[in-house]
Amino acid sequence: MVATLIWVAIALIIIIAITFFSYYNRFVTLGAQIDNALAQISVQLRKRSDLIPNLLASVKGYMKHEKGIIKEVTDARKALVGAEGVEAKMKAGNKLQSALKSIFAIAEGYPDLKANTNFLHLQQELSAIEDKVAYARQFYNDGIMSYSVTISTIPGKWFAKMFGFKTREYLKIPEAAKAVPKVEF
How many domains does the chain have? Predict the structure, then answer.
């Protein structure tokens, strides 16, 4: 009887230890997934900013009257490269994306530029990078969701409190991007 109680106590201790280790490892794994997703966003934003000088070089010859938009793109790129922290990088990235949309809209008025293979290639590359940025943001938010669910449900909530794991923030769409575009005919 005493031997049975000892075995039950040992089994219970092992189960509790495995539970502690598994929850701790789960929080660490989810945190690493989130950090990786954030790093991927940074990589894609950097790739996009590295393409900007080439795009501007191909555009400058055609858009001599559009110096303001070229300066806007250059300033937005500088802000992105110098941005520190997630929030600043997202804000700078959105500003750069908006400036690039302006360049592509203006390019519609320059048929020779639209036909330039270098410009078209850069435009396609930037479009592909935008898709990758969107995917990386989704992957990041999916990681945040998994982490938040684990940290908010029982028994994960108890273990998170014991281990000191805190909630993390989703990447949010800026208010300007949520506005419905006005279309007039």
Answer: 1
Residue 171 lies in a domain: no
pLDDT band at 8 (very low <50, low <70, confident <90, very high): very high
Measured CA to CA, the distance from residue 160 to residue 167 in angstroms comes to 9
As given in the structure block, the two tokens for residue 31 are: 């945190």
Distance CA 82, CA 70 (A): 18
Q: What CATH number corresponds to the domain at position 39?
A: 1.20.1440.20
Domain membership of residue 132 as a residue range: 2-166
Confidence (pTM): 0.67
